């Protein structure tokens, strides 16, 4: 199962999905908070730690980078809330330190490290900073704003990290809610099991978003700097209905339509709601990077995001993680009283098809890519 990262839709502007990964998560440290219900995401990130180390040791020229500045800046784009981003940044810094020792053994001292945490303005940075270790050996800054725009000074960044964030579209294609469009997604909330025009609308928007993301990082990053990208994907040509998340999104849509019949929500609300999530296949990702032209692809592969998950899926625990990550998206569009009903029914519906979920394809659902600034 691909890890899920939270975000939101603005109710007053339903065609505008949030532009970064972690806007309307459940903040704080409560029972249902994202901070306490994001272990799946951390485990998925751990899967690629050794691969990140190998790529940095092979491709990052720290000697050249340090010749122009004694400050080494690392940024996590779509950082979210809680300890996951902090652990990832500390892992990256340890790897960079190892590379410095290996490449510059005669250097008298390490550069000064600065870690920058980026996410939407509404991200709970207060909760994030309470998770920082007291003995941290790096400077810290938060930079709110959409990562589809430039958020850092030009040529100031050496290493970027973006984990389970790029799959969130910056905006929903307007044709999804246009009754005159072939891509009108009536009665559905995602491109899973939808007409091909809906899938194309999502894919087109992702291409635009990826180009914006790469162009922004291209302005911020020094020549030779690197981006580590981990996120949702799917093999080229595979229907999304064959993976757990796709089945879950179909179930969510079905539950919402059942709630229309009972009067809990209106059909118009369902028709106006679409999940701004796109799992980009590697072929489309490669084309987007090459079209942008600012970065070379040093590494790209598909992986199993959850190799530790063996045997039956604990549906209630899984849904609890999903809710912590996605509740804000639904609560900003549907009445608050409908949210409990949605997720309670989701537990029941997924439990009924648990064997189908366990048999779903999962080996190649996590994209791992290393990009280098030309």
Notes on the protein architecture:
The chain is α/β, with parallel strands linked by helices. It has one domain: Vaccinia Virus protein VP39 (Rossmann fold, 3-Layer(aba) Sandwich), CATH 3.40.50. The protein has 12 helices and 7 strands. Helix 2 packs parallel to helix 4, helix 6 (196-220) packs across helix 9 and helix 7 (244-262) crosses helix 11. The longest helix has 25 residues, at 196-220. The two termini are 34 Å apart.
Main pleated sheet: 7 strands, mixed
Straight-line N-to-C gap: 34 Å
Order of helices and strands: HHHEHEHEEHEHHHEHHHE
The CATH topology is given as Rossmann fold
Number of helices: 12
* Mass-distribution shape: globular
Structural category = alpha/beta
Quaternary organisation of the protein chains: single chain
What is the CATH homology-level superfamily? Answer: Vaccinia Virus protein VP39
Q: How many domains, in number, for the residues?
A: 1
Strand tally, please? Answer: 7
CATH architecture level-2 label: 3-Layer(aba) Sandwich
Beta-strand portion reads: 15-25%
Adjacency order of strands in the biggest sheet: 3-2-1-4-5-7-6
Mean pLDDT: 88
Radius of gyration: 20 Å
| Low-pLDDT segments, ≥5 res | 1-38
Return the CATH class: Alpha Beta
Helix content: 25-40%
Organism: Gossypium davidsonii
Biased composition (Polar residues): 19-33
Region (Disordered): 1-33
GO biological process, one term: methylation
């Amino acid at each position: 199962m691909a890890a899920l990262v939270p975000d939101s839709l603005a109710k007053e502007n339903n065609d505008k999905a949030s532009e970064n990964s972690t806007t309307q998560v459940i903040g704080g440290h409560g029972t249902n908070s994202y901070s306490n219900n994001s272990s799946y995401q951390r485990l998925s990130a751990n899967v690629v730690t050794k691969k990140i180390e190998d790529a940095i040791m092979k491709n990052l020229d720290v000697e050249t980078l340090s010749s122009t500045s004694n400050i080494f800046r690392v940024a996590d784009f779509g950082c979210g809330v809680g300890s996951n981003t902090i652990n990832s940044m500390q892992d990256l810094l340890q790897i960079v330190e190892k590379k410095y020792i290996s490449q510059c053994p005669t250097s008298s001292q390490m550069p000064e490290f600065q870690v920058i945490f980026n996410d939407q303005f509404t991200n709970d940075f207060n909760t994030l900073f309470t998770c920082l270790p007291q003995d941290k050996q790096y400077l810290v800054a938060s930079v709110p704003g959409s990562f589809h725009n430039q958020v850092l000074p030009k040529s100031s960044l050496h290493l970027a990290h973006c984990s389970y964030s790029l799959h969130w579209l910056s905006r929903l294609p307007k044709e999804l809610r246009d009754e005159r469009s072939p891509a009108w997604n009536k009665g559905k909330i995602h491109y899973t099991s939808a007409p091909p025009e809906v899938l194309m609308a999502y894919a087109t928007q992702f291409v635009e978003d990826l180009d914006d993301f790469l162009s922004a990082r291209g302005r911020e990053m020094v020549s030779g700097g690197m981006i580590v990208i981990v996120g949702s994907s799917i093999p080229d040509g595979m229907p999304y209905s064959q993976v757990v998340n796709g089945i879950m999104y179909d179930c969510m849509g079905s539950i919402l339509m059942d709630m229309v019949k009972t009067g809990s929500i209106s059909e118009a609300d369902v028709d106006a709601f679409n999940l701004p999530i796109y799992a980009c296949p590697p072929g489309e990702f490669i084309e987007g990077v090459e079209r942008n032209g600012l970065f070379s692809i040093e590494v790209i592969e598909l992986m199993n995001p959850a190799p530790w998950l063996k045997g039956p899926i604990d549906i209630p625990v899984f849904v609890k993680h999903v809710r912590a990550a996605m509740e804000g998206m639904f609560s900003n569009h549907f009445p608050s009283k409908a949210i409990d009903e949605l997720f309670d029914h989701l537990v029941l519906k997924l439990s009924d098809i648990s064997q189908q979920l366990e048999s779903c394809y999962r080996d190649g659902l996590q994209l791992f890519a290393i990009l280098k600034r030309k």
